[in-house]
Amino acid sequence: QLQLVESGGGLVQPGGSLRLSCAASGSNLYYYAIGWFRQAPGKERERVVCIRRSGASTNYADSVKGRFTISRHNANNTVYLQMNSLKPEDTGIYYCAGRPYCSDYIEEFEYWGQGTQVTVSS
Q1: Cys-Cys crosslink for 82: which of 2, 69, 118, 122, Cβ 3.0 to 4.6 Å?
Q2: What confidence score (pLDDT) does residue 107 get?
């Protein structure tokens, strides 16, 4: 069974950068698409982007286009989310989740990490 652990969150000033990692264990990452999601305080969880098994990504959420980049390295069973030009509205808990194929529906993702907190503040 796929297990996911996020890391790399923290406190960063506006305009700064962070790289989040989603480390997989229990199964080979090669067989899964991985999505990044985030949940701001008082808001619903939203999908940021998903990366297919091929390495191609889906569309990014409009709010992060041009600033965030997803990548995967199957050799080390890890998916990354590079976040640049961070804004206070990027604050939230960031989760990665896996399933065989990317989906537009959050509820279809079967395996979830515990999340990592990102806070963008001066």
Answers
A1: 69
A2: 95
